[in-house]
Each structure stands twice: as C-alpha cells, then as structure tokens.
Amino acid sequence: MNPSYIDLACANATLRRAARLVTQLYDAEFAGLIEAPQFALLAMIEAKPGCNQAMIVRVLGLDKTTVSRNLKLLARRGWIVKQERSWTLSDEGRNILAQARPRWKKAQDRFRSEMTEAQWNDMFATLKHITETAHRFIHEKGEKS
C-alpha cells in the first residue's frame, strides 16, 4: 500500500477518498469526452428513459441540487431532452455514451485487474450493504424528525 494513504479511521472519510480516487481513474479514461459523474447520469437516463429528477436522486443517491445542476448542464450540451417532468437521451447523448463505453470498459478492466474475482464480488456486496445501511439510517432519521 502507498504509505501516503494513512488509515483515516473514519468510514465517511475513507469512502469519500476511495470514491474520489476511483472517479479520477475513470475520468482519466474519459478525458476530453465526458466526466465519470456525467457518464453515470447518462447511463441512468438510458436505462430508465422517461425518468424524473426524483428517481435519479433516489437511484444515484445524489442531492436534488447536484442532480438539477447536472441535468441542466447535460441539457445545455444537447445530450438529454426534457419532456414535461422526465428526461430522455437525445441522439447526441446516445452518441456520447457510445463513444464513452469503450473508455468506461477500459477503466473498469484496469480497476478490476488489481483484484481477484472474490475481491471484486466482495467489493460489490460490501458497497451494496453500505448503501442499504446508510439509506435505512437516513430514512429512519427522517421518519423520527
């Protein structure tokens, strides 16, 4: 392990650091085309055409302000189209995703190559559990407020 990465002893700081570094890995592959968060948003809209902002917030775990800002940016670029209260990909958005997918795969393969199959599967299982736990705690707190 790189000695500059000390144990932060804080789940939040450790997960945020990991997320930033993984994002940087994907952004390096996407360079000049799209950013990793934009790719995730376009892929979500492609998977759920006609999704609204509330669904995007729930599925991606982002706050409303972040989603709103990013949807406006993608719309300005002509990659998505708003139809009443829902979003779909434009032809340009589908084209960008098609260009980005091989780069995404390269980043994914690079990242995965550093792990065994068991580590890869364990990572997803652990991240799913972390996500579900945090989601449950957030909603329990909201119900008590």
Distance between termini? Answer: 42 Å
Low-confidence stretches: none
Helical element count?
Answer: 6
What overall geometry do the principal axes of the alpha carbons give? globular
Total beta-strand segments: 3
CATH superfamily: Winged helix-like DNA-binding domain superfamily/Winged helix DNA-binding domain
| Secondary structural class | mainly alpha
Q: Report mean pLDDT, rounded to a whole number.
A: 91
CATH topology: Arc Repressor Mutant, subunit A
What order do the SSEs take from the amino end to the carboxyl end, as H and E? HHEHHEEHH
Largest sheet: 3 strands, antiparallel
Oligomer: single chain
Rg, Cα atoms, Å: 17 Å
Overall number of structural domains: 1
CATH architecture descriptor text = Orthogonal Bundle
Lateral arrangement of strands in the main beta sheet? 1-3-2
Can you describe this structure?
The protein is mostly helical. The chain has one domain (1-103): Arc Repressor Mutant, subunit A (Orthogonal Bundle). Helices cover 71% and strands 7% of the residues. The chain has helices at 11-30, 36-47, 53-60, 64-76, 91-112, 117-144, and strands at residues 51-52, 80-83, 86-89. Strand 2 (80-83) and strand 3 (86-89) form a beta hairpin. Helix 1 crosses helix 5 (91-112), helix 2 (36-47) crosses helix 5 (91-112) and helix 3 packs across helix 4. The radius of gyration is 17 Å and the shape is globular. The model has no long low-confidence stretch (mean pLDDT 91).
